[in-house]
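Invent a record, attention on tokens:
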Amino acid sequence: SFLASWAPAFAACAPSTKKASKAPKGSRLDAVQEEVDDPFQVYIRFRPSPGSTSAVVAEDDNVVRANGRRFRYHGVFKAAEQQGEVYQRAGKRAVAAFCGGQGNAAIIMYGQTGTGKTYTMGGLPETAHGAQRGVVPRALEEMFAGDCAPTSCSFLQVYINEEVYDLLAPRSQWRPLKLRDDGTNVSVDGLTHVPVSQPGEVLRLFEEGSRRRAQGSTALNDTSSRSHA
């Protein structure tokens, strides 16, 4: 599965403030410096698959080999790496950018059904709490521990045809919502905003919305690979 971290205004990543690399131009060290500074970073995470052989192999912490070709990413998480390591390397920078008041940030998971997206993000009971908690619970802990805790929470789903549904609204009220873009900000008409004051409240809304997502997908004859929450 792919994990993308977007922090366009992060001081250590923004192109306008990037420090020049001291390594020789074009060298491997110079390339690594540029990767660290990238505002948009892409990571690969391998799901454990005991007893099976994969055509895609993690060569090291940055390189994946497939069909005789090598592909370089900002980071590669092998099957044995734990949730905490994933957050520290791929998620923490985006949270730091947001909490530092340097703009919005996003952490996005992409992959086929069954590749571990929900597990990594923390959308399962076993990954919402404890040592195996995912990206979302860890990000919330850091935000509430600092001065950037959210005051309200929304949870929406975007379908492949760009229809938006409110996952915090009762199923009886499910209908496509309108997106409004004034060129500076994007808003969703009628989207539910629930006041929150601690991580547990956000996680309960996350679990509630995830259940509605599953029920709604069935009702709309949809599949998980065609929508994004």
Summary: The longest helix spans residues 199-219. The first strand starts at residue 2 and ends at 6.
